[in-house]
Amino acid sequence: MSSKAKQSQKLLLFTLSGTRLFGIGTLKIREILPFKPLTRLPHSHSAVVGTTSFRGSTVPVIDMARAVGYPALTPDEWKTSSILITDVQRQQTGFLVRGVQKIIETDWKKVKAPPTALGDRAFITGLLDVEGDIIQLLDVELLLANVYPDSLDSSEVALTDVQTETLKALNILLVDDSRVARKQLCDVLDTKNIAYQVTTNGDEALQVLIKDNELGRPVDILVSDIEMPGLDGYELTFDVRDSGTLKQPYIILHTSLNSEMSLSYAKQVGADEALTKFDATELLHAMLRGANRPE
Length: 295
Fold this sequence. Notes:
The protein is an alpha/beta fold. It folds into two domains: 9-149, CATH 2.40.50.180; 155-291, Rossmann fold, CATH 3.40.50.2300. It is 27% helix and 30% strand. It is built from nine helices and 15 strands. It has helices spanning 64-68, 75-78, 140-147, 161-168, 179-190, 202-214, 233-242, 260-268, 280-291; strands spanning 9-15, 21-25, 29-34, 48-54, 57-63, 82-88, 91-97, 99-106, 124-130, 133-138, 172-175, 197-199, 221-224, 250-255, 273-276. Strands 8-1-2-10-9 form a five-stranded mixed sheet, with no helix packed on it. The protein has a five-stranded mixed sheet with strand order 3-6-7-5-4. A hairpin with a 5-residue loop joins strand 1 (9-15) and strand 2 (21-25). Helix 6 runs parallel beside helix 7 (233-242). The longest helix has 13 residues, at 202-214. It is globular and about 65 Å long. The two termini are 25 Å apart. Residues 171-292 form the Response regulatory domain. Residues 8-149 form the CheW-like domain. This is Chemotaxis protein CheW. One of its GO terms (biological process) is phosphorelay signal transduction system.
């Protein structure tokens, strides 16, 4: 393994309204399709413009501009638009975008967190300067949660009293830049009255790990997203594993990507497990495996 956990990240750049560029990691994208006629979906959210067929499955198509607050694409604009078929949080969704520009290669250290002035409702997880153009990285999880609010409801997980008390005794740290993903993680633990700490990026998480270690109560379980501005989940994992002073936590990398490549790389950098968001039972049982690991 190299001295740094570097993995190039590719972003697809596209437009929604005017010339402003937006980006999504290509690992989230299954295919880019030219527009084709859609089947209307009655009683659906106003941003859902219909469904399309993709590899034998029926996939809902969301007008991304409408979903994030821009004017909806007109039927005439549909003719020159593209449909991004994504695979996020265990579901396939199509996003109608005005125009696909290009794919670029970057790394998450260059991505800056969005200004807090944008507020909690901004659909932005990060900003990237590409040759003077500011690319806005979209929070696809928040967008989907707005269109499908029921997706935020975490199913109740059955745990024994012993399992619940085992988790309550742990120092658990959650890391995710997506507000929706943080809410899902927190809700699962809140329903069991299990204490935890939460940060929005890898840099903050590393400081918590170092501080708690110095205070004599090191983090036992680290649950981290992969794609984050600054120190991403891969690099955070590598830095923790490479530390000669930190008591080693059980590391669960938790990603919205249904990608074998991303999950495989998680193991390479030292994660104990890699899970695809979001399954509450799967997550709690992974934490229990961490609690019961041999010393």
